[in-house]
Amino acid sequence: MTYVDKIYGEVEFSGIIEEIIKTNVFRRLKKIHQGGSIFLVDPKINHTRFEHSIGVMLIIKKVGGSLEEQIAGLIHDISHTAFSHLIDYILEIEGEDYHEHRYAEVLKDRELAAVLNKYRIDDTLLADLDKFRLLEYPLPYLSADRIDYTLRDMFQIGKISLGEISWFINGLVAFDNRIVLKSKEYGTWFQEQYSFLTAEYFEDVKNIEINMIMKTIIKDCLQNGIIEETDFFKDDFYLIDKINQKSDLRQWINRIRGNGLKNKKLTTKKRIVDPEIIVNNKILRLSEVNLK
Question: Options 3.40.50.300, 1.10.3210.10, 1.10.3720.10, 1.10.10.10; which CATH number does 2-291 get?
Answer without folding.
Answer: 1.10.3210.10
